[in-house]
Each structure stands twice: as structure tokens, then as C-alpha cells.
């Protein structure tokens, strides 16, 4: 499903050594590149306004990642490689475009993708901006220190997704009658109600462009004897985001050079939070999932605290970062309050 672009955005089909996909561009070809990495259940479309607002002298570049948008549907995410497939796709795109170094921006799942990219290619990173990033330890199934609750990472991966949601995405559902409809989920969690963006329909179309299936979204799953009785499968982004396949984040502390990191989060984010409405431990603690073994066995994942602890260690090892919280926003502060987001983001670009 191709989504129409805003004036000033150019969409091109680019074939790299790894994948053919849609890539959006803004600004002059010879300007300083800023590469935007979208999250789950979205596409490059979510970055268009941010790209158009870039200061003079910067070129915005945003790709539809494999599994999303107009990326080649035959190219799947091997979850057993963690987020490696996505990080290597970015490197291949840069090689194809002749880009040796860029500023980077990642939203939600795009955050840990950039952590992996930084660990592999620090010399290619000028600065890194993280907007509501998922935990560097994975989504679900970890304790505060990042260690796994269960050895098989039960409670994370494709089997934890509400099965109605991907069915409705695959059907292209645009209504509001079903509580799990894509529009309802987007408007309840992507931004803080009652905010509704002017481009609601385009953002919904972008969400609906998610590739659905056992090899895509939500991916496959593995039965488990451990609560809540589902463990990660081997395909798709949701499985790739699990602690089962997460890379050792301590490698981030020793990279050279260490790019400056800006971490921007929404004050009312319910997706990435120390009490996430999409994480099994927290939902279990609310009584929403039967058989919860208790916080002593399966604590809710403190996602914000985990990210802060990792970035503090990054700083202790010679890196630098800042944390900015934008009030009255949820999971997409760059859409909800673009002026506030761009004020801090542009300052970092000019460093």
C-alpha cells in the first residue's frame, strides 16, 4: 500500500545489495544526510513532517524497513539475528547512496536498531536521536538489570500480540467498531488523546502497510511451559526485538568514536514505559492475563529505567547523552509537539 507523500518529499525505489524498498528524501542531494528509522506498525511516512522541518543544509532520508511499507515482501526479518537484518539494511542503503557518515533518528523499535548499528558502525554515526526507543534489552521478558526472566524468553515475541490486531491490519480495517482496530490502537497509544494529527488517514494507511503473517508481523511463536506459555519464534520484527536474540549491549560502551545521543520521550507513553500496556509482566500484574506468577517471579519490565541505566553506562565510559521529556505527549512526540521536538533535535544536529 503506497501512501501519498507531502509536497517537498520525493519517493524513490532504491535497490541496495540487500533489499529493494521505498526511500523518502527531502533537501538537496549534497546536503548533510539525516537518516530516519521508523518503528513497528508504521513506515517512512511517519517522518515526513520532521524531514521537511530540517534546517537548511540537511538532507532527510527515510526508508521503509523490511517487513513494512513498500519494502520487498519477499525479504523477511531473520529474528535469530536480533536486529541485525535491519541494521545491515541501513548500512547497505548508505553504501548504495554513497554516504560515509550521517546523523540518525530512530523511533520506538528504530531505537534498538540504531543501538545495533552503532555497535557495528560507530564511525558512520555523527549523532543519534532516539524518540521513545524500545529497551536495549528487548521488549518483554526481562528484569530490571536486563537479564531474562525465563531462559526461553517466554512472555515476549509474536505470540504475545493480540491476534485480532494483525488480522484487522491484513484486512485493511479503517473503522472504529472493534476495540482492537488499527485506528483505535493508533489514536489511543501512538499519541496522547484527545490529540489526533491532521494526517490521521495517511498515518493509518502507513500502519496498514505492515506486512502480516507468520514470517512478518506478528511473526511465529513457540509454546512454552513458562508463564504466559508463549516464547519467541524465529521470524519478524516482534521476535527480533525479544531478549532471546538481543545483542550484548555492553559492546556499546566500548565503541570508538562515541556519537552524541539525544533521547526524547513522551510523558504519557504507554507503549515504552516502566509500566507498558503491551508488556506481559505489567499486564499480568493488572490481572489482565491469567496465571500471573507474581512480581517476584515475573516483574513488569522497567523499560525507561533500563534505557537510562544503559545510557548512564555509555556516559561513564566516555560517551555523552541527554534525556528530554516532552510533556503531554505519548509515543510520538515528533508528531504531537513537533516544535518542541525539533527545538532539541535541531540543536543536536548543529553540534
Summarize the entry for a quick read:
By secondary structure, this protein is an alpha/beta fold. The chain contains eleven helices and twelve strands.
Going by helix content, strand content and strand pairing, the class is: alpha/beta
What gross morphology would you assign?
globular
Computed Rg:
19 Å
**Distance separating the two termini:** 38 Å
Which second-level CATH architecture of the domain at 10-147 and 248-349 applies? Answer: 3-Layer(aba) Sandwich
How would you describe the overall organization of this protein?
It contains eleven helices and twelve strands. Helix 2 packs across helix 3. It is 27% helix and 17% strand. The protein has helices at residues 48-52, 84-97, 110-120, 164-170, 182-190, 200-208, 237-240, 280-285, 303-316, 333-336, 338-349, and strands at residues 10-15, 20-26, 32-37, 58-63, 102-107, 125-131, 212-213, 217-218, 221-223, 230-232, 260-266, 321-326. The relative contact order is 0.16. It is α/β, with parallel strands linked by helices and 351 residues long. The model has no long low-confidence stretch (mean pLDDT 98). The chain has a domain at 10-147 and 248-349: 3-Layer(aba) Sandwich (Rossmann fold), CATH 3.40.50.1820. The longest helix is centred in the first third of the chain and has 14 residues, at 84-97. The strands form three sheets. The protein has an eight-stranded mixed sheet, with helices on both faces. The chain has a two-stranded parallel sheet with strand order 7-8. Strands 9-10 form a two-stranded antiparallel sheet. The radius of gyration is 19 Å and the shape is globular.
Amino acid at each position: 500500500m503506497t501512501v501519498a507523500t507531502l509536497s517537498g518529499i520525493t519517493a524513490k525505489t532504491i535497490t541496495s545489495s540487500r533489499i529493494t524498498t521505498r526511500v523518502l528524501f527531502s533537501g538537496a542531494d549534497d546536503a548533510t544526510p539525516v537518516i530516519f528509522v521508523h518503528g513497528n506498525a508504521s513506515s517512512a511516512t511517519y517522518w515526513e513532517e520532521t524531514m521537511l522541518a530540517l534546517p537548511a543544509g540537511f538532507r532527510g532520508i527515510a526508508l521503509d524497513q523490511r517487513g513494512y511499507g513498500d519494502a520487498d515482501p519477499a525479504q523477511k526479518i531473520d529474528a535469530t539475528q536480533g536486529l541485525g537484518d535491519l541494521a545491515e539494511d541501513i548500512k547497505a542503503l548508505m553504501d548504495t547512496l554513497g554516504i560515509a557518515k550521517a546523523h540518525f533518528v530512530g523511533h520506538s523499535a528504530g531505537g534498538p536498531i540504531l543501538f545495533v548499528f552503532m555497535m557495528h558502525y560507530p564511525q558512520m554515526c555523527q549523532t543519534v536521536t532516539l524518540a521513545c526507543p524500545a529497551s536495549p534489552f528487548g521488549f518483554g521478558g526481562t528484569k530490571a538489570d536486563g537479564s531474562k526472566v525465563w531462559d526461553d524468553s517466554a512472555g515476549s515475541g509474536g505470540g504475545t500480540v493480540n491476534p485480532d490486531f494483525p488480522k484487522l491490519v491484513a484486512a485493511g480495517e479503517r473503522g472504529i467498531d472493534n476495540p482492537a482496530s488499527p485506528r483505535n490502537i493508533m489514536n489511543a497509544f501512538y499519541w496522547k488523546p484527545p490529540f489526533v494529527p491532521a494526517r490521521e488517514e495517511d498515518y493509518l494507511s502507513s500502519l496498514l502497510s505492515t506486512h502480516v503473517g507468520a514470517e512478518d508481523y506478528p511473526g511465529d511463536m513457540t509454546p512454552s511451559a513458562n508463564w504466559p506459555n508463549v516464547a519467541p519464534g524465529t521470524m519478524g520484527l516482534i521476535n527480533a526485538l525479544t531478549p532471546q536474540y538481543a545483542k550484548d549491549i555492553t559492546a556499546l560502551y566500548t565503541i570508538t568514536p562515541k556519537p552524541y545521543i539525544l533521547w526524547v520521550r513522551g510523558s504519557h507513553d504507554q507503549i515504552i514505559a516502566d509500566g507498558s500496556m503491551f508488556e506481559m509482566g505489567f499486564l499480568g500484574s493488572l490481572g489482565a492475563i491469567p496465571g500471573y506468577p507474581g512480581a517476584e517471579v515475573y516483574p513488569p519490565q522497567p523499560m525507561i529505567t533500563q534505557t537510562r541505566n544503559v545510557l548512564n553506562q555509555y556516559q561513564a565510559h566516555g560517551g555523552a547523552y541527554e534525556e528530554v521529556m516532552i510533556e503531554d505527549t505519548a509515543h510520538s512526540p515528533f508528531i504531537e509537539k513537533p516544535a518542541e521536538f525539533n527545538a532539541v533535535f535541531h540543536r543536536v544536529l548543529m553540534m
